[in-house]
Design a protein that fits this description.
A three-stranded antiparallel β-sheet has the order 3-4-5, covered by helices on one side. A two-stranded antiparallel ribbon has the order 1-2. It contains four helices and five strands. The chain is α+β, with helices and mostly antiparallel strands. The protein has a single domain, classed as Double Stranded RNA Binding Domain. The chain is flat and about 75 Å long.
Length: 141
């Protein structure tokens, strides 16, 4: 297996990757019971070289639900019935996630609500109040 080159400075070395092919579920006829086409690519986030600590923190946060107990990121791809294509897709997913994590988030600048949004909010409150008043039990003796 080759290392994943993200940019000139950022590289996921071979030591940081572990690859396992397993049988995929879903459609595929008898082929699904014989061929291990689903790919599990494990990535040790700590071993990614050249990644800024803040970008690593953003990446760890983005993939927090895909981390195992040891902190390895598990990328599972079963899109294709071909193991090689699934491995390429997993490697591309890792590369794209790292590139995305490298972009710092734009800080939010507080703004005032627009006049139209204030009017919409008050109208919605008024309609909700009218609806509740309409449910009130009246004295029809």
């Amino acid at each position: 297996m080759d290392p994943i080159t993200v940019t000139d400075q950022i590289l996921v070395p071979v030591d940081a990757l572990a690859f396992k092919a397993v049988r995929a579920g879903g459609p595929g006829g008898q082929n699904v019971n014989k061929v291990s086409s689903k790919v599990e690519l494990r990535v040790n986030l700590e071993m990614i070289s050249g990644l800024h600590p803040e970008a690593l923190a953003r990446l760890r946060h983005a993939v927090r639900n895909q981390l195992d107990a040891e902190g390895w990121w598990i990328v599972v791809v079963a899109r294709s019935r071909d193991q090689v294509r699934n491995l390429e897709a997993a490697r591309a997913r890792v590369q794209q996630a790292i590139l995305t994590a490298m972009v710092p988030p734009v800080p939010r600048r507080a703004t005032r609500p627009t006049r139209a949004s204030q009017v919409r909010r008050l109208e919605a409150k008024r309609r909700a109040g009218d609806r509740k008043r309409g449910r009130k039990a009246g004295g029809d003796d």
